[in-house]
Each structure stands twice: as structure tokens, then as C-alpha cells.
Amino acid sequence: MYKLLALDMDGTLLDNNKTITGPVLEAIRQLVFNDVHVTIATGRFPASVWLHAKYLGLNFPLVALNGAVILDPITGSELHGTPIEAQIARKIAEYIETTDSYVHFYGYNILFVKELNDMNKRWPYANVVIDPNKELTEDNYRGQVHHIQVNPVGQLSSFLAGTDNRVYKSTVINENPEVVDALYAEFSTWKELEITRTGKRRFDINASGVNKKTALQKVCADAGIAVQDVVTMGDYDNDLEMLKWAGLGIAMGNGNERAKAAARAVTASNNEHGVAEAIRKYFFS
């Protein structure tokens, strides 16, 4: 039997309502009960990964911010981190400030933004463990949303030039896909960076060499798990490296064509309990 299952979150572990379906929850808990390691590897905040891991009952190191952070599943504290070099983060902000695009930067559970807007002030709510029976309000999720802060700092380049806060990831967003394409092409030439598509209107920036695969390589080396004993599951471009690397990479039925091409197998979609289907087929068949 495989020894480790590593799951992307959005579009994989979570359905389109951002919830963990009953069959997926049951299948994962059965794996853990049978002493198979399960981890999460995502672009989300450490706190979001930790909250979902607690809900699932996971006890293996977790991967956040596209591999920039490895965290303890029990305490949520950082075990290993690879931030973007401070002067490079400042240069990213300076370049974006010459365009008409939006950018923000991720600290450890802090989102640094120029100013609050309708999108970023709701960011903590996009990271909680959602109960489909509860409206997404502060009163209903007070015990979770406080784990993530949104910090308006004014001009980001000036803030990044003077702060001691480490930043692990940046996200660039523009409603015009052509502008996103041009910015993606520009930052792809910066050797200090790792650039990953996360949608037609957005992409993520990490330090060079940071991705989910490299983080999983580290946690597997620490745990003595060979690559052939690892199963990874994902649906989008920030999953490609780990899908190609693992002993068995599985793409979601809702995944894009690049994810499916990188994987050795394809399961059902996230809305059809694809994670549970894969667990039944590859772990308990």
C-alpha cells in the first residue's frame, strides 16, 4: 500500500462550494485509521491548511503557500519556510505599481495589501472550514477567521523596503487576461522567482525553486518515505510538479489539460467525490 497521500485543496479536496463532502471525509479518515499518512499541499495560508487538517484528523506535516511553508499539523507553527528575498519582493511591488494590476503579499497568516477592498477584506473567510449549514459571517466563524489578518500598509513597495516581516508568496490579479499574460511573461524571466498560473486572471509568485514538489520531497525525506510510495492529487498548474514527481500522480476530472497530462491517472471531479473514488481504487482495492 502507498504510504502518503498529498492533496491539493481547491478543486481537489474541496468541492465547488469549498466544502469537504461526506464521502471524501470518510475515506480520508479511514486512511488515517489505517496508518496511511495524509497531508495537504496548497497555495492557501498555513492557518487554512491547519484548520482543515484538524477537521480531517491529520497528523503529518502540511504544505502551504505553494510549498513556501511546511507546518506542524498539531500546533500550526512553521517547521520550515522559504520566503521571497526582501529586495526581490520590493522589486515585484515596484513593477506592479507601474501597471493597473492588483497585488498582495502573504506573510505567515498575514495578508499585506495596499488598502482594503471588497475582495481582500473577505480573504480570511475564503480560508475557513466551511459548514454548509452556516452562513459565512463573522459570528458563525469567529473561532477561525481570527487566525488570518488582512493588513493594509499603503504603498507596498515602501512597506516592503522597511519591514522585517517575511513574505512567502505574492498574487497578481487583473481582470484582463492579456495583461495577466504579459505580466506572467515578464516575471517568468526573473531568475529569482517561481511563477505559477492559478487562473486566467491571476498567478502566484514564490521564491525560485519553491513548489509543492520540493516541499513534499523534504517532508518525505524527513519521514523516510520513498517517492514510489507517494500519491499526489491536484487539478491545476501549481500541482504539475508534484503530479509528475510522485509514484502515482492523479488528476481530478475537473482538472485542466496540463494537470491531466502530468498525471498517470484521472479520477472523478471534485463535485463527484473524486478523492474518495481514488482512495478506494488505489488504497483499498
From TrEMBL:
InterPro entries, per the entry: Cof (IPR000150), HAD-like_sf (IPR036412), HAD-SF_hydro_IIB (IPR006379), HAD_sf (IPR023214)
A cellular component annotation (GO) from this entry: cytosol
Superkingdom as given in the UniProt entry: Bacteria
An example molecular function term from Gene Ontology annotations: phosphatase activity
Protein name: HAD family phosphatase
